[in-house]
Amino acid sequence: MRFYKNFVVFWAIFYFAIAIIGRVFTKKKEIYPFFRWSLYSKTPNNLVYPYVLVNKIGDSILPKPTNILDLYSVHDLALTDLNLMVNNFYHDVIAIPGIENTYQGVFLNVLPENSEYTLYIKELDLSIENYKATENHSQVLTVKNNNIIPFERNN
Predict the structure, then answer these.
(1) Which residue range is the domain that position 22 belongs to?
(2) Model confidence, pTM
(3) 26 and 76 co-located in one domain
């Protein structure tokens, strides 16, 4: 058993010695990427998080707008899958202006026909220390009976 303990200690010291030598003597200040501390400090300055609030499911009008993630009994999808679908729906619709009229993606089939829901985005500015004070919610589009209506025409 002593051999294994010495073996682990020897290779741990060897690994850390190479890491420290690499940090001191190499041009990029690393040999192992694990010891590059800036890997953990590079984050985007702005965070955009899309979410969907449902107003009507089929013929049933909800008393208040409900997040689509809370309606798992209706869509029978895992929360991670649905969250990814909402994110992809947002990026697909935003990527090409005018796609609202031709978009026939999977997300339109999540809820039954005659459903009404609205796509919102939550934006945060992470460059400020108190980033929660910069929280901004804005409406992107509305879907009524699988027809996408951009926000500009919702008035």
Answers:
(1) 2-40
(2) 0.67
(3) no
